[in-house]
Amino acid sequence: MADKSKKENSQKNPLTEVFGEPIDVYSTEQAIEDGVLFDAGQLFGRKIVLTSNLLATLKKEAVVSALIIGFSKTMKFSRPDLAVFTINNEKIYVDDNGETITLMLSEDY
Fold this sequence. Notes:
The chain is an alpha+beta fold. The chain is built from five helices and five strands.
């Protein structure tokens, strides 16, 4: 029965319909362990992660601004989505996959 629900969920994903099942999956936890992502904790029960590149590129004040703006943008999403905004001439992407909110620079996307 678990296989059936997995199949039903994957059929709802338009990317899976186009490209098929993924060959491999790189989890958020693996990326945090590898140092690619930084676990910024939780906000309103949502996991927040930042790319290491974003942390290395932006000053502390800009990172705080990115967190505030990024989270406020996700509050307007009715479903998992992606938004882009600019801080200090840097494009910041905020991706909300329904479980984790990720903030990254354009080269990280």
